[in-house]
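Board notes (copied after class):
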Amino acid sequence: MQKKIIHIDMDAFFASVEQRDNPDLRGKPVAVGGSADRGVVAAASYEARKFGVRSALPSVTAKRLCPSLIFVKPRFEVYKEVSRQIREIFAEYTDLIEPLSLDEAYLDVTENKQNNPIATEIAFEIRTKIFEKTGLTASAGISYNKFLAKTASDINKPNGQCVIKPSQAEAFVEKLPIHKFYGIRKVTAEKMISFGIFTGKQLKEQSLEFLKSKFGKVGSYYYEIARGQDRREVSPSRETKSISVENTFSEDLIDVQTIKEELFRLSESLLKRIAKYNFIGKTLTIKIKYEDFESITRSKTYESGYLNKDQIDQTVDFLIDNLVPFPKGIRLLGIGLSNFLEENQDKQLRIGF
């Protein structure tokens, strides 16, 4: 049976929630996160995007591109609640839901609770219900695999949908610019362009051996998507790879002890988040973003896992001591845990065996 996959992507989600809840922001360029002189944009309204404002852009740059930009503080609890409402709608159609973030998810509707064989109708119904329940718009991509569904959801944004049928896939992929391929990021796209690969057609012309030699294991994925193929299943139990917290400061940090104390505070928040998931991570990573936006990370792994705050803080001490003196002021600090213990190892540690 041919798979029927839908990718639902909310339109400018964080910013749209803010505009919904504050009528004064509607129709105006809005950036969620950061401020006029500090931080990074977490999300931008479509009015702001017209000026080139986008997520992950330094706030100072965003303000320069759009002098009338309005900055608002993020309200993650509100976004989570809206996301929960949206997923309740998804669940009316299928249990095969793979969330990618608060504002997007894959749905496998090959067999669905509504017994509707037409995936485009299901996508339209879901988008309609989302608007009726939340007042927000969503876009959708529909196809026979995740890669094509994800790619299609961008085509008629905002508040639209696009279907790529099996008979259309080959021609669609061949014409697709290489930077539009989901999974091919900016640096990789630039590398491909240096090899003369500008479109899906030129990517398809490359041998599997060439792609693996130039891009490693992921070369196999590039070989397949150039042919409109993607073997990945929609996985409801999508594994959490890492958990982290970070903070951007209103003034750059220079003092080593202050930097450590800020990381110690962040470790408390990290442990609270870890506790919710009942995870034990083996690898601790600290992230530092300097005043000029250069970022570095440093990590340390304990095979038995980080079990308490003392262990984390000792590692923070060790990692920071190996970085001093800092070459410039620090605007952001982050700390995270990854490389989680397997479930059976986790249980053994918790019951003291």
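Comment from the instructor: Residues 4 and 110 are 5 Å apart (CA to CA). The longest strand covers residues 242-253.
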